[in-house]
Amino acid sequence: xxxxxxxxxxxxxxxxxxxxxxxxxxxxxxxxxxxxxxxxxxxxxxxxxxxxxxxxxxxxxxxxxxxxxxxxxxxxxxxxxxxxxxxxxxxxxxxxxxxxxxxxxxxxxxxxxxxxxxxxxxxxxxxxxxxxxxxxxxxxxxxxxxxxxxxxxxxxxxxxxxxxxxxxxxxxxxxxxxxxxxxxxxxxxxxxxxxxxxxxxxxxxxxxxxxxxxxxxxxxxxxxxxxxxxxxxxxxxxxxxxxxxxxxxxxxxxxxxxxxxxxxxxxxxxxxxxxxxxxxxxxxxxxxxxxxxxxxxxxxxxxxxxxxxxxxxxxxxxxxxxxxxxxxxxxxxxxxxxxxxxxxxxxxxxxxxxxxxxxxxxxxxxxxxxxxxxxxxxxxxxxxxxxxxxxxxxxxxxxxxxxxxxxxxxxxxxxxxxxxxxxxxxxxxxxxxxxxxxxxxxxxxxxxxxxxxxxxxxxxxxxxxxxxxxxxxxxxxxxxxxxxxxxxxxxxxxxxxxxxxxxxxxxxxxxxxxxxxxxxxxxxxxxxxxxxxxxxxxxxxxxxxxxxxxxxxxxxxxxxxxxxxxxxxxxxxxxxxxxxxxxxxxxxxxxxxxxxxxxxxxxxxxxxxxxxxxxxxxxxxxxxxxxxxxxxxxxxxxxxxxxxxxxxxxxxxxxxxxxxxxxxxxxxxxxxxxxxxxxxxxxxxxxxxxxxxxxxxxxxxxxxxxxxxxxxxxxxxxxxxxxxxxxxxxxxxxxxxxxxxxxxxxxxxxxxxxxxxxxxxxxxxxxxxxxxxxxxxxxxxxxxxxxxxxxxxxxxxxxxxxxxxxxxxxxxxxxxxxxxxxxxxxxxxxxxxxxxxxxxxxxxxxxxxxxxxxxxxxxxxxxxxxxxxxxxxxxxxxxxxxxxxxxxxxxxxxxxxxxxxxxxxxxxxxxxxxxxxxxxxxxxxxxxxxxxxxxxxxxxxxxxxxxxxxxxxxxxxxxxxxxxxxxxxxxxxxxxxxxxxxxxxxxxxxxxxx
Length: 994
What we know:
Among the domains are: 6-175 and 253-265, 5'-nuclease (Rossmann fold); 352-580, 2-Layer Sandwich (Nucleotidyltransferase, domain 5), CATH 3.30.420.10. Helix content is 47%, strand content 11%. The strands form 7 sheets. The protein has a 6-stranded mixed β-sheet. Strands 7-10-9-8-13-14 form a 6-stranded mixed β-sheet, sandwiched between helices. It is globular. One of its GO terms (molecular function) is DNA-directed DNA polymerase activity. Its EC number is 2.7.7.7.
């Protein structure tokens, strides 16, 4: 190598992880060998080499090498035993691909370099500094922050996913320090991914400020006594040794002994036959054709290469950390993340594939005449074999009820992409498998009862064959609202493996921008209106359950469901990659489906006697309120009638603020009554209280016993993942998330939720999570410090605003600060705050003004969030979830203001929702790893709270593990600037545990 040469160093391990996590499951057809990561790696490498050799695209390398981690056992482990200790073993399906990827690198005629005892980053650093010393230029193909310390005028990084060069200005813009200070910055901040400790509580911004003030880490530690902030000063002094250790861990070695000198890295011409032979062995058809054409060789005469498949310990590769989080940005991907192997192999960009799919499937009309009815076992076997051949199948169940815990399975439908070599062709074939359609016995009480229709596959045989397909991890099952189908099949002994949900994909893409139901998605993306359920099952009194629908009609309806679902997946899945939302779907949505399904299946026990007694108490209290209401009104009337109530309040009594609805009646909404009550009017206050009591009685104490399952004797709520804009879950049938906790009656209802004998309920509740998220996203120093120090946040706010000492603070002052703290999150107005605190609007306005003066970062956050929402039409949570507000620019001031308030709140509420989703996904694996999985069962999620049923003897071990998992739920994806706090208690009923 000489001056003027250009060396490309590829972070091979990073490529592996991007390829593996971006692709849906992909297996070699002949033997089921997992090859998804190999496919993605080969396509990324081919694209990089093709672009590198094209002088019109960019720089042309003279030397080229791919660098891998040999194993997780390196010299850093000797320095600090906890280094990367939080990482788990690689997924089983990735293990054999490590060796295959190394063979792929050699097939590309590229140096494949790894060194025992050192990480790939150290090898890259050694080569980069050696080449730079000669006068050569270096490009490191990676976006890993650990490598940014190497950037100089002659050493650049290149993020191939974003097609972006990373130089000195980019490092400064990202981290606030130049590359030469990245080691010190990382030593202060630490790294949750690699379990580098750093100094607790020091984030990147603070670290950058400290380094700017003191110059470097040694100087900072030597002069730490000069730091003005007391807590920060004490923290740094106490943890100085941790910072020094962290520096040793993050600093890359540049003296790795190299078996292959720089001169040996010269970029050789591709050996076409050698590469084609390997690609044919992997069965990558489209990429094989591309390579053969580029290398001018005849693929048809080249035999597949002999490849060695390594399993177990011989297939060395880096460990994965918990949650499969990496420094690499897996959501910003190119063709490797595109769903459909042929698209990937073709090297298309995700955005182009998404557009092509939409165009193809919106113009290719659905033909019901081609649907098949599977009436025998042999035909079913053929369909299952076809699904396994393509590795992709649309799936749907037909049942007798919307309740998955009580629905009877009637049949299933399957859809298969007909032409796997051209996924944009629009060809899909679908079939319906009837299993339990019945006839007769509907009207005649003296008949023998309903009989199974002839020529159906017997239920037991059909389920046995379906189990083989649905539990096969190499076949991706695609469903709409998958949780329902998952639960139905689980009740029949089948646990679905490897799946996608089109409803959730749509939700990730367009939360708040439209309906995510199948019919709405079909019309929006396919230009097709599906058959309505009532058209096959009837409506009103003539409606029948699906098991009584004629099989021919059922086939058209059911097969269409699977067909439409598969087409929607083909159209929508590439958009996740194209819009950088793969991470959100893979980390927050898809993993939650089985978690919620298991929670719904478990249910919770209720005490009917308690509810019956409470129902009587509420009835008596409501009757007492009614007498008082009649006395205040001067007459008896129907309190539940909005018309009669309006006539009393605004007609007879002439109360202020009355307005009429479009029907000409007085408005008696909850807000109208609350406003009147806030003004001191006694009758509206009594009516508000009466409404709350009667709603509690009808919705809970009377209704809850009707939801008890006849077999399990427990209540099984249903959770909806895609029903809110912000990512919050909702529950229904029954809704357990709206039981009030701030009044005595609501708390009494919670006492009816009980544990079974020998168990207790554990309630684990995030403390003030939304205020903590606000402190993080708005980066408010006072709030961050208060949370870090464990100070009463409302007392601190009151002290900051009103100059009152925290010690012995009057309760009323703290209450006002609390109202403002929570009100700010929801964009409260002076009018709203005045009503809440029963003060003048001008005084409330002064409070809000003073609040923003004391915490200017909050106003900055609100204004920047509104500006972002107006520009993009959406806002994002800290984990990248998008909440869309298409009417943020409405010409209607009230509509616009509502959307602005919602947009301000969404990143906060949505981030909190994402954190608890992550906790739910992580807590059961943590319990299983501790041997507690059979003794602890997660039952309910109520906003910021998780409820578990735990064996008495397991409580002592389970509770701290639950708390720790929840408090660390954002990790390793994100290190919050404020600590999360979880309060947990165990008791015999929900109220006592809360």
